[in-house]
């Protein structure tokens, strides 16, 4: 039988609101979520997946002596679903070079900042501390450099004088839930590629800051 949908494995560690957005969009899109894997047993995203009848797996990183060993177990589990794409959705683990190489150009991540600015954690607090006027979300290909792979798309939000970490998190999440399913569907349609650390959409080289998504 011919495969009509891009098969996706989603990796999570927590609440999984991005996973939920991906599940909801998949119903009328060109990708199918084959499995959801978490390194935390109490990740609410696992419940979201079960409610949607998506197979789940829990692999505890604390059961492995090294990052490499955990990643090998993760690879084994992921590969049992034969996915075309790996989507990181709040997966709070740094991936080993071996993992990234195994899925070369097939891993996407969403990050709550306007990359290449503010890689790493606590982005909302850091943009507030720096007195930034704007903030946002980025989707990028994953490479061995943490939050450093080529950016595919970004969407900006304005920072208002009364914004807090909580209000920024809420605003950024709302954008994430639109942008991530959109980028996954580009990949699923075969429109998105990474070559020599550069991202291409429809064979056009994307700028360092990716495509600017504007609210529709
Ligand atoms: C999101 O803010 C995402 O940008 C970051 O982790 C968070 C995950 O949130 N990588 P959720 O679990 O999808 O609600």
Structure overview:
This protein is of the alpha/beta class. It folds into two domains: 1-103, Formyl transferase, N-terminal domain (Rossmann fold, 3-Layer(aba) Sandwich); 111-138 and 149-216, Rossmann fold (3-Layer(aba) Sandwich), CATH 3.40.50. The chain is 31% helix and 25% strand. The chain contains six helices and eleven strands. The protein has helices at residues 17-26, 44-51, 67-79, 97-102, 123-129, 165-188; strands spanning 6-12, 31-38, 56-58, 85-88, 107-111, 134-141, 151-158, 192-195, 198-201, 204-205, 211-212. An eight-stranded mixed sheet has the order 3-2-1-4-5-6-7-11, with helices on both faces. The protein has a three-stranded antiparallel sheet with strand order 8-9-10. α4 links the parallel β4 and β5 (107-111). α1 packs parallel to α6 (165-188). The longest helix has 24 residues, at 165-188. The chain is globular. Bound molecules: 5-O-phosphono-beta-D-ribofuranosylamine (GRF). 5-O-phosphono-beta-D-ribofuranosylamine is lined by residues 14-19, 89-90, 110-112, 176.
């Amino acid at each position: 039988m011919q495969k009509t949908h891009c098969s996706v494995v989603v990796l999570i560690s927590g609440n999984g609101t991005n996973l939920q957005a991906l599940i909801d969009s998949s119903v009328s899109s060109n990708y199918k979520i084959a499995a959801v894997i978490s390194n935390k047993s109490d990740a609410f995203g696992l419940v979201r997946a079960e409610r949607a009848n998506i197979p789940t797996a829990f692999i505890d990183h604390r059961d492995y002596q090294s990052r490499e060993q955990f990643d090998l177990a993760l690879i084994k589990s992921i590969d049992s679903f034969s996915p075309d794409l790996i989507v990181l959705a709040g997966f709070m683990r740094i991936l080993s070079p071996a993992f990234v190489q195994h899925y070369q150009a097939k891993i996407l991540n969403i990050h709550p900042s306007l990359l290449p600015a503010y890689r790493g954690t606590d982005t909302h607090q850091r943009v507030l501390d720096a007195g930034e006027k704007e903030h946002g979300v980025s989707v990028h290909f994953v490479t061995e450099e943490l939050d450093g792979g080529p950016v595919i798309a970004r969407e900006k939000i304005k920072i208002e004088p009364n914004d807090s970490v909580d209000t920024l998190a809420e605003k950024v999440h709302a954008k994430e839930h639109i942008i991530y399913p959109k980028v996954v569907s580009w990949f699923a349609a075969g429109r998105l590629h990474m070559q020599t650390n550069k991202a291409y959409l429809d064979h056009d080289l994307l700028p360092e800051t990716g495509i600017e998504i504007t609210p529709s």
